[in-house]
């Protein structure tokens, strides 16, 4: 790969860094951001790292009206020896391109994007928090910024990367949540955009989340939009069930997002010789397993929480208490292994972790 | 209603107006726009008309990542005697509130919004083109602008109205289009956001539109996402079929947008004592009617085109040529009546048209 020319304009001032003991997810942002512009016929250009600042967008920009936007999320960790580690960032760039394709948006150069991301992180390396369970959350996203009210793909885009220091998802360690099975609202359906990481999927989910919270539940369990029988996702995470020793997760079906943590959990379970199955799983099957005492563990997987154990499932008023409402052994083992590999505290037999050399000069 | 205080800051410079003979939909915008800000706990405030200019938004604004945004579209006409007419604008404001509710966004005051819209149009009245079949397109929209990467409803919003002078949708009069029945992609499903006017629905439709255009078709006919049997919409319009003297349109079902032109067409047909039916209609039924020679007319309805006759439907390679590929009598009659009522060239027995007094002082 040829080295991408990235113009760098450093900020004259530096923000005060937030207290690492009280970091909130996605609230504070670093001093700089990466931007590249796309124009039809000219491709991606003007790759630059500039001070973090408001975007200036025409009010008629397509992103506001017709939702052409996709994003990714990943984390950088700073290990005890000062090195910076990224978890499978190539997978994020691959998925970003799959999302872009679904939304009729121009693909990015995956290697160039990774290089831009690397360079931005190295500039902002002092923003990576070092307390246990803290990290630097990375949000690459692409928005359509042509000023045009016709319903058609934009001819102009911006690819942007912003960084946010984040704390532990679990304030008091890994913590089981209560989940409401959603019967009214639908997140996505085959033929729609559920398998792309695009804004509309998240907008569609807010109402159900609001209703669930009013009843004291943390998240909703999404069912398929066609038969309203089969499990799809939990909140904005993938979901796993351990039933009678076997781990089952819904198969990729066109409406489920193909999570990178999901993929890693499957690979880790197979590495451990634990039986796993990617297939359709219905609420009836889960209820039957529960009644037989075989519903051993339930957990969500995602970048933000890594592993999120489920302590209760409420399906139309029928409450299933999973593993006495406590974190299961497998959930715990997966969480510890994944997060320790991510942070470099455990050997990485999978080759998942990318280590950044903090030699900025070499990259500039 | 109390008169809303709107702060007005007029632009020091005025743009050159586009040639009224070659107006393109949604490409040029007037000198000013309306903006109001919302903040949780403070409500809507800072209602203002300001020079049309880029919006300044934090890159972490929720609209870019989680798609909290809704919009409306309507038109202002300038009639021969110089008065300005709006078509059922109250309906747009009602629907805007229904969309806002679905997306967990704060409602607007419908009367205040209408007043803001009126005032903006009066300031921009010289931008309303007067050639036949031209109008001023009005785009009210609301975006979430809190800088936060958590998946939750924003605590901050902007309500914005922009205006665009537009030409005739049909360059050479009303013109029948070729439509491809869509079997792979799905626009929306019950429980999703299909009945809200929100960005994600339009983003989801772009791919199918791209594929249809590659095969020489103008738009796609959307089928339901569950059985893939029943007709939903055409492109971003509602759809009507005239079969054996009866006019049929898909009933509002939770995934179809409740169009204001759709509603007006139904009211006009009932006023004319033409049999109408709002119900499920399958592709099988349409094919059967076609084979019996009873598929008399097909047309789409929407603000941009008013009535858009369909000359051909292609369902998996089976081509149905409607009314010899020509505009049907009923389509023509509806188009003429609706557009003449909108422009004040025909009496309005329905009370649909709102007339603006161009006495700016009275409103300021």
From TrEMBL, chains A, B:
Pfam families given in the database record: Aminotran_4
Listed cofactors: pyridoxal 5'-phosphate
Enzyme class: transferase
Its EC number(s): 2.6.1.42
Entry annotated with the keyword Amino-acid biosynthesis: yes
NCBIfam families cross-referenced by the UniProt entry: ilvE_II (TIGR01123), PRK13357.1 (NF009897)
Pathway in which the depicted protein is active: Amino-acid biosynthesis; L-leucine biosynthesis; L-leucine from 3-methyl-2-oxobutanoate: step 4/4; Amino-acid biosynthesis; L-isoleucine biosynthesis; L-isoleucine from 2-oxobutanoate: step 4/4; Amino-acid biosynthesis; L-valine biosynthesis; L-valine from pyruvate: step 4/4
Similarity section: Belongs to the class-IV pyridoxal-phosphate-dependent aminotransferase family.
Record protein name field: Branched-chain-amino-acid aminotransferase
Organism expressing this protein natively: Sporosarcina contaminans
GO molecular function: branched-chain-amino-acid transaminase activity
Domain of life, per lineage: Bacteria
InterPro entries documented for this protein: Aminotrans_IV (IPR001544), Aminotrans_IV_CS (IPR018300), Aminotransferase-like (IPR036038), B_amino_transII (IPR005786), BCAT-like_C (IPR043132), BCAT-like_N (IPR043131), BCAT_family (IPR033939)
UniProt keywords, alphabetically: Amino-acid biosynthesis, Aminotransferase, Branched-chain amino acid biosynthesis, Pyridoxal phosphate, Transferase
């Amino acid at each position: 790969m040829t080295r991408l020319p990235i113009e760098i304009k450093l900020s004259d001032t530096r923000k005060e860094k937030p207290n690492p003991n009280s970091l909130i997810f996605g609230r504070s942002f670093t001093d700089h951001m990466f931007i590249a512009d796309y124009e039809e016929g000219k491709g991606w250009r003007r790759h630059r790292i500039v001070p973090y600042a408001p975007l200036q967008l025409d009010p008629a920009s397509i992103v506001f009206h017709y939702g052409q936007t996709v994003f990714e999320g990943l984390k950088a960790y700073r290990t005890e020896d000062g090195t910076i580690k990224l978890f499978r960032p190539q997978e994020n760039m691959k998925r970003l391109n799959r999302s872009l394709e679904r939304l009729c948006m121009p693909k990015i150069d995956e290697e160039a994007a990774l290089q831009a991301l690397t360079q931005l992180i190295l500039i902002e390396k002092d923003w990576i928090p070092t307390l246990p369970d803290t990290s630097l959350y990375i949000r690459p996203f692409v928005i359509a910024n042509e000023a045009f009210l016709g319903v058609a793909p934009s001819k102009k885009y911006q690819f942007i990367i912003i960084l946010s220091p984040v704390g532990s998802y679990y304030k008091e360690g890994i913590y089981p949540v209560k989940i409401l099975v959603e019967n009214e609202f639908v997140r996505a359906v085959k033929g729609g955009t559920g398998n792309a990481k695009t804004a509309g999927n998240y907008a569609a989910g807010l109402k159900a989340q609001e209703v669930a919270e009013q009843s004291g539940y943390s998240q909703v369990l999404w069912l398929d939009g066609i038969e309203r029988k089969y499990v799809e996702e939990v909140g904005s995470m993938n979901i796993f069930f351990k039933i009678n020793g076997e781990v089952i997760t819904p198969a990729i079906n066109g409406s489920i997002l193909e999570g990178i943590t999901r993929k890693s959990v499957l690979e880790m379970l197979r590495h451990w010789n634990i039986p796993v199955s990617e297939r359709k799983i219905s609420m009836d099957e889960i209820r039957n397993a529960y009644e037989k005492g075989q519903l051993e563990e339930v957990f969500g997987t995602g970048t933000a929480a890594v592993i999120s154990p489920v302590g209760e499932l409420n399906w139309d008023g029928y409450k299933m208490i999973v593993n006495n409402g406590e974190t299961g052994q497998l959930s715990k083992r997966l969480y510890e292994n994944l997060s320790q590999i991510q942070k470099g505290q455990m050997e990485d037999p999978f080759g998942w972790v990318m280590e950044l050399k903090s030699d900025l000069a070499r990259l500039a």
